[in-house]
Write a structure and sequence with these properties.
The chain is built from five helices and 15 strands. The protein is α+β, with helices and mostly antiparallel strands. It has two domains: about 5-145, no CATH class; about 145-260, no CATH class. The strands form three sheets. The chain has a seven-stranded antiparallel beta sheet with strand order 2-3-1-5-6-8-4. Strands 7-15-9-13 form a four-stranded mixed beta sheet. A four-stranded antiparallel beta sheet has the order 10-14-12-11. Strand 2 (about 20) and strand 3 (about 25-30) form a beta hairpin. The two termini are about 30 Å apart. Mean pLDDT is about 85; it is low at about 1-35.
Length: about 270
């Protein structure tokens, strides 16, 4: 499966790789208005790193803007360090503090290969970027709790409509997705509410905070229309907020609440290749 984070319009937001790095920058497949093709994935218990990664400043005239995996090959184009941190740690811009001004303006291209065969899932890809940030950019940070505008995930009236996972409770979460037109279907396996919140906040405009009180892991499918303004099918599923309530028995409520903030203590321009 080709996964990319890009700002190019007209591509599908697909699966749990639907990751936003800011307004207009979302994870999308390289297949427009069609089903994604399955890929041979890395073992779920693998913890990949970059076997090799070449980093160079981006061409300021190049409009490319993506994070892309194709098997072991990783191609990152025109990304700032701040955007890489947001992707790697699953946070919104409002959850990132500190750091030099250049970390939000200087942009880099990264071309690398993972040290494990197969294509990484979302968490594995994030882990690869975390290691790269520490090793090549010298990233050091600490975490704080601050009150932010968030979406709280709560249990809707009538209770959750989730199936307890039969998978190993200590096993890894799994995810897959497919889309057509403006409809997205996301399949979650062995997923906690914290995992669900981390994934979904990438397609939202503020952090997600789990206030469900649900402690188990679940298997479920979420099917929704991600761009209702472009939807033409009268039988299309509802928008995200309605779909979450009707299909999962959960609610997304806009509130202010304590949320984790990543505070940068140190970061450097990348080390030589």
């Amino acid at each position: 499966m080709l996964r990319a984070i890009a700002s190019t319009a007209g591509l599908l937001v697909v699966g749990v790789a639907a990751l936003a790095l800011g307004p207009g920058v979302v994870a999308q497949t390289a297949v427009a208005d069609g089903a994604v093709q399955p890929a041979r994935m890395m073992p779920a218990d693998a913890h990949p790193a970059f076997e090799v990664a070449a980093i160079k400043p981006s061409d300021p005239n190049d409009p490319s803007d993506r994070l892309h995996t194709d098997g072991r090959h990783v191609l990152i184009e025109n990304q700032s360090v701040d955007k890489l941190i947001q992707f790697a740690y699953g946070i919104q811009k409002s959850q990132l503090a500190g750091g030099p001004a250049w970390a939000g303006t200087d942009r880099y291209d990264i071309n690398g290969v993972a040290d494990v065969e197969g294509e990484p899932n979302t968490k594995q890809f994030q882990g690869m970027i975390q290691k790269l940030l520490a090793e090549r950019f010298g990233l050091v940070f600490h975490r704080e709790q601050r009150e932010l505008a968030v979406y709280a995930i709560t249990v809707a009236k009538g209770g959750p409509k989730l199936t307890k996972s039969a998978s190993d409770p200590n096993g890894q979460m799994d995810e897959s997705g497919s889309g057509s037109g403006t409809t997205l279907s996301m399949k979650f396996t062995n997923t906690s509410m914290a995992d669900f919140g981390m994934i979904m906040q990438f397609v939202m405009d503020r952090p997600m905070v789990d206030q469900t009180g649900l402690t188990g892991k679940y298997d479920f499918v979420l099917r929704y229309t991600y761009d209702e303004t472009r939807a033409t099918d009268p039988n299309a599923p509802p928008g995200l907020f309605t779909a979450v309530q009707e299909q999962l028995g959960l609610k997304l409520e806009a509130v202010k609440a304590p949320a984790e903030v990543l505070v940068v203590d140190k970061v450097e321009r990348p080390s030589a290749n």
